[in-house]
Amino acid sequence: MRTDCGCGCGGDATRTSAFVRPRFFAGQLLTEDDLSLLVEYTTAKARLHNRSLYGPGVICGLGVTCDPCGGGTVAVHPGHALDCAGNDIVVPCTERVDVPALVRERRISALGVDCGESGCDDDGDSGRRYGLYARYRELPVEPVAPYATEEPCPSPGCVPSRIQEGFQFVVKCDDFEDHRHNPGTRLLTTLGDLTRADRARTRDRRLGFYTDALTVASLGTGRAFRFDAADARRYATALAWLRANAGGEGPPAPPTVREMTENVRALAAAIARYDTYDPAGQTQLGKDYPDLATVRDARGVLGTACARLGGADMEAAWPDPLRRGIAHAVVTETAARVVPERGDPDAPLEVRMLAQGTPLGHALRVEFRADLGLIREWLLCRLDQATDLADCALRQDIAAVDVPPPLPAPPPDSTEKATVAEVQQIAEAAAALGGAVRRFLTDAACATLNPPCGDSADTDVLLAHLELDGCDVVRVCSATREQVLPGGSAYGEWLPKLYRLRELAERVCCQPVPRHQKPTLPSEGPVARPYADDLLGDWPRTGDLEEMLSLLLTRAPGETPPKALHEQVYTTPSEVTDSMQELARLRTQVADLTAAVEGLRAQLGSARTQVTHLEEQVPERLGSRLAELEGAPDRAAGQGPERDQAQGSDQAQGSDRAQDQPQDRAQDQAQDQPSDQDQASDPAERQPAKPPARRSRSPRTRKPGETP
User: Are the CB atoms for 381 and 200 separated by under 8 Å?
Assistant: First the structure.
């Protein structure tokens, strides 16, 4: 059993070489390698299914819209996407993306240094286009300390125990690579250069008109062609036109040359068919179709027309060299094989070819030989470079085709006759190579129906195209991004329309919006203005946009009809409307209360500011006293050790002062004691005693700015 690629290739981010899953059994010692292998197996299988069954692109949501506030910010709405590696990119909620900041990060990563620029400027980024991408990211989280093991080098510190899947937004140049499989891409690879392919195919197409005619002309040289009513009508119509237009002086105009050549070919074919009959047959034809009585006159008309066409500019009338070769053969072969009174009985092949409407002259045979060699060489060249050929016998069959050798260019107006062997060889080679071309094209077209596996290293998923004007986002376009079709039930009916819709979206959605152009008036003379003929008539809807709308709304064969809008209209009950009105009144009251609370908060803040200002103006000595007064009730209620310590300190200070100045203290106490007369006086007239004035041993110096 093969478990690898067999060619030395290995796995990478988008392709796995082999899948190995763990096998568990009783008594097995499970390690982190076994559990990690199980996680890696399931994750790799899920990613394989994502990229193989669905491919990269947006599954749903992830719409990008302009920010309501404008500027350089856009909004990315919730959604789900897959990158080319099969990773799920899930955006759970609406994200606001700063586009100028992403542009700046892109420039820093490209230059390798931060130049201090803002990321955009008014001139350099005017009209710049970027692509907004979503990128899958993994982040190890929730570190834990591992248990001690017997490993010689255990993991130091904590180890992440979880892998969190996330995303990030990036901007890049607007050169998005479309990962979707387009059958035309593979077909172009098989066909190669389209110019060379078209050259070979058009020559094969011209030979296809002559293949059967050459075969019939070479096989029955002595048999007449049937002349029927259709030939008689062709004869009469062409003769009437040539009688009216073949004469004249000077070369005719290119349109007249083309029409005259077609009528000459038609009349010459009818007369050539007439010439293939013997005299008795011609007499009978004259009886059956009376118009043939003018055959002699018709030959003269053809001679006049051929003489005039001989002096015309055939290159201007027939720009295509392939068709010009046939037109030249019409003129030369008609003049040589039909214009003479009895035709040309010595050239049965040329007459029979002309009777079928496929004239074969000397110059045309030279072209046919060259065309056969060109077709064969192109087929062999493409088969040498084909890598997915399914028609195994095609190369051998092409190599076995007997192509006649090329001939030198003939002299002008040469009437050299062909041989039966040459005609048969050209016919057989044309038939064989024509079949080979069809086989090759069929094989190439069928191979495109097998989409290749994606193998891209760019895992970014395009969300939208952005157009910037300076630092402002002026336009967002999401119509041409990759879209994943997750199910046939939801998207199956769209499949017949998708290709045409995408083609229209390329021209409608992501192109600049057309602007109204004011009409310009000429410098002099009258002004030409069209008349509005359809103002009161039908107004047809035309253009790419109208076609896109019609395609979206018109049912395809087997498609279910779109739902009408009126089927989705619902009425609201009166109970719901009354509740909504009551809820509106409650919201108004809550708003009023909120405003009142905010006013009270503002007044409280102003009062605090005033108190702080007054505290700064109070002197330092009074400030400490105020603090003592503010804290006095707390100390009185507490009776804690702090108060005892304060009293002890005051007593110690008092004893010191008593020792230093005993006399002064005695005098102060004497003054503080009231006299007997004072005690006997009326209490109402008694004045409160003044507190004793404390004296300091040295005069106190007033601080600057302190109140004396």
Answer: no
Q: With a cut of 50, which residues of the chain have pLDDT below it?
A: 1-13, 122-124, 565-572, 634-699, 701-704, 706, 708
Cα(206)–Cα(201) distance, integer angstroms: 9
Q: Report how far residue 297's alpha carbon sits from residue 303's, in angstroms, rounded to the nearest whole number.
A: 10
Question: Contact at 8 Å (CB) between 156 and 195?
Answer: no
- Give the angle subtended at the CA of 43 by the CAs of 42 and 49, to the nearest 5°: 90
35 Cβ partners below 8 Å, 6+ apart?
A: 22
Q: How far apart are CA 654 and CA 648, in angstroms?
A: 10
Query: Of 399, 518, 490, nearest to 60 (Cα)?
Result: 490
Q: What is the dihedral of CA 618, 623, 626, 628, to 10 degrees?
A: 180
Phi, psi of 285 (to 5 degrees): -60, -35
Residue 224's identity, in one-letter code, is A
Closest to 83 (Cα-Cα) out of 118, 47, 107, 31: 47
Contacts of 401 (CB under 8 A, 6+ apart): 376, 429, 432, 433, 436
For the chain, counts of helices (H) and of strands (E) = 22, 10
DSSP secondary structure letter of residue 483 = B
Q: What are phi and psi of 633, to 5 degrees?
A: -60, -35
Q: Which helix (H) or strand (E) holds 102?
A: helix 99-111
22-65 pLDDT tens trace: 999 999 999 888 999 999 999 999 988 888 888 888 888 898 99
In sequence order, the β-bridge partners of residue 132 are 171, 464
Q: Going by C-beta distance under 8 Å and a sequence separation of 6 or more, which residues neighbour residue 589?
A: none
The residues, any chain, with a CB within 8 Å of residue 695's CB and separated by 6 or more, are 661, 664
Question: In this structure, what token pair is assigned to residue 185?
Answer: 């891409």
- Of the candidates 507, 505, 457, the one whose C-alpha atom is nearest the C-alpha of residue 481 is 505
Cα 64 to Cα 306: distance, rounded to the nearest angstrom = 69
H helices of 250-320, in order, are 254-275, 279-288, 295-310, 314-317
Q: Are strands 88-91 and 79-82 parallel, antiparallel or unpaired?
A: antiparallel
- What contacts 368, CB < 8 A, 6 or more positions away? 207, 210, 426, 430
Residue pair 72/104 in contact (Cβ under 8 Å)? The answer is no
The model's pTM is 0.61
- Report the SS3 class of residue 469: strand
What phi and psi, each to the nearest 5 degrees, are found at residue 329? -65, -35
CA distances from 35 to 17, 30, 87, 329, 339 (A): 20, 7, 21, 82, 95
d(CA 258, CA 249): 17
CA distances from 209 to 103, 213, 327, 543, 572 (A): 61, 7, 14, 38, 73
Alpha-carbon gap, residue 700 to 554, rounded angstroms: 104
Per-residue confidence (pLDDT) for residue 654, from 0 to 100: 46
Q: What angle do CA 264, 269, 275 make, to 5 degrees?
A: 125
Query: Do 118 and 124 meet the contact criterion of CB atoms below 8 Å apart?
Result: no
| Confidence (pLDDT) at 392 | 86
Among residues 457, 467, 471, 458, the alpha carbon closest in space to that of 134 is found at: 458
Query: Residue 592: which H helix or E strand, with range?
Result: helix 574-617
